[in-house]
Automatic annotation (TrEMBL):
SUPFAM superfamilies, sorted: P-loop containing nucleoside triphosphate hydrolases
High-level lineage: Eukaryota, Metazoa, Ecdysozoa, Nematoda, Chromadorea
The name this protein goes by in its record: OBG-type G domain-containing protein
Matches recorded under Pfam families: MMR_HSR1, MMR_HSR1_Xtn, TGS
InterPro entries, alphabetized: Beta-grasp_dom_sf, DRG, G_OBG, GTP-bd, GTP-binding_2, GTP1-OBG_CS, P-loop_NTPase, TGS
Amino acid sequence: MGIVEKIGEIEREIARTQKNKATEYHLGLLKAKLAKYRQELLEPKGSGGSGKGEGFDVQKTESVAASYEFTTLTCIPGVIYHEGARIQLLDLPGIIEGASSGKGRGRQVIAVAKTADLVLMMLDAKKGEQQKILLERELEAVGIRLNKPRPRIYLKRKAGGGVKVNHTVPLTKCDEKLIMTVLHEYKIFNADVIFHDDYTIDDFIDVIQGSRVYIRCLYCYNKCDHLTIKAVDTLARQPHSVVISCELNLNIDYLIETIWDYLALIRVYLKKPGNAPDLGQEDGLILHNDSTIEQACHAIHRTLAANFRYYLNF
């Protein structure tokens, strides 16, 4: 039995198992096995690579727009110029059901998506919810967590001493026995575990795997001109959502502004001693809003951080 068949068998067993107190340990064990098999599927042993996927040959052409689906067949790069910053945009082929198992060049699309700072999920406004559920399920299966913070769970493996589980808040979604069961499935018998919040066993499995990627996602519903005003208003009020019409060029400016906000970029203006600060549209450093002074120094020159003494904040 291959890995894909094993994954399907475990998924069917999880689906038919009732969720209650008596079955939570069995379900936790199944979820741990499922995560291990999915990891093996994405990073097959003996591949000789880094396990991050094959990727694409980037084509320097224009994206094709048509009235039918799956017009994009490879990775097509583009650039958005906004607030003096160059934001690289990669137009990827759409993924189909089973992409997490490699169907429809799914592994290649996922390999690129894992390296992004933001996922812009393009959806058809008339059937957006169906597409959204499918895409989220496929990305979830390969370890991409959308609009979700990284779990504050401390896990340190040790050479001996057994497993010690502590928590700073009461745990209502899992208990120490379930945590131990999952750790033993991963052949971890000596470790320190600290839960800093009330997390599920799925979150704990993500921490054990260590390969999960937490990315912000913006759901973009196209063809909003085919809907009623009430339906458009309903979509626009959903979390992390923007409605547009590419054909009529509706709401594109707001989409670009929202992309800028979700990327959480800031501009740092510089001033040379004795000169006025450079405040032009193209001046300044573009950094993430959580960047440190050291990172700003590296962005200017790689040797600046070693000679840095102080800075003046205006």
